[in-house]
Each structure stands twice: as structure tokens, then as C-alpha cells.
Design goal:
By secondary structure, the protein is an alpha/beta fold. The chain is 43% helix and 16% strand. The chain contains 6 helices and 5 strands; from the N terminus they run αβαβαβαβαβα. This is Rhodanese-like domain-containing protein.
């Protein structure tokens, strides 16, 4: 029975490490870099992957809301010819969104490194 505890611990540790590792093909952007890209929106798709109620509470102007929970079923709404810039609250869900998009053939994906939480902090240095 002791081996079961070790197995469970190993699985939990693996899942935690997997979430913290960099996402393949995802570029981290600072708040300043995203701010500059927002000045030229025709080249990019800006997606906020937080839930709708979070988005309504406050969002970065120019970002469209497609919640992570709906991303796979709504990917047809995203222009594949543009680079995708993701954001969420802290950067965790945008990493998950990047994995979904990569599995579905999107290649130019980046995200606001610290999410919406780092947006004002990053611009007010």
C-alpha cells in the first residue's frame, strides 16, 4: 500500500512540474511589448482567455474574450494568418490556451507573461 502513496505523490509532482515548465512555442511578452503591439492591431489577434465574468470586471482594451473553457470549440473565430497574443489573470491559463492552439495548428503564439495582474505594474515602472 505504501507504493500507492509514492505513485500518487509522483503523479502530483509530475503535474505540478508540467504546469511550471515553459510551453513549447510560446513567447513571453512584457507589458510594454504587448502595449506596443496593441498600437498595430491588424497584425495580431489579442485574446483574453479568462471567464466572461472576469473579463467584464476589467480587461485590456483591444483583447477579445474567448474563455479557455470554450477555446477549442471557438478556434474557428481566430485568424490563423495573424500572430496570437494571449492573456489571462496571471499567465497560467494563457499557457494552457497556447497548448490547445498549438495542437490545433496555430504557430505564432505569445502571451502577456504575468497576465492582467502584471499589466499596470509592467507599464508603470
Amino acid at each position: 500500500m505504501e507504493w500507492l502513496q509514492y505513485l500518487l505523490f509522483g503523479v502530483v509532482l509530475f503535474l505540478v512540474i508540467q504546469r511550471l515548465l515553459p510551453t513549447k512555442g510560446l513567447t513571453d511578452l512584457s507589458a510594454e511589448e504587448v502595449f506596443q503591439k496593441l498600437k498595430n492591431p491588424k497584425d495580431h489577434v489579442f485574446l483574453d482567455v479568462r471567464e466572461a465574468h472576469e473579463y467584464r470586471e476589467g480587461h485590456i482594451k483591444g483583447f477579445k474574450n474567448i474563455p479557455l473553457s470554450q477555446l477549442a470549440s471557438r478556434q474557428h473565430e481566430i485568424d490563423r494568418n495573424k500572430s496570437i497574443i494571449l492573456t489571462c489573470r496571471s499567465g497560467m491559463r494563457s499557457r494552457q490556451a497556447a497548448k490547445i492552439l498549438r495542437r490545433n495548428g496555430f504557430s505564432r503564439i505569445s502571451h502577456l507573461k504575468n497576465g492582467v495582474l502584471g499589466w499596470h505594474t509592467g507599464l508603470n515602472k
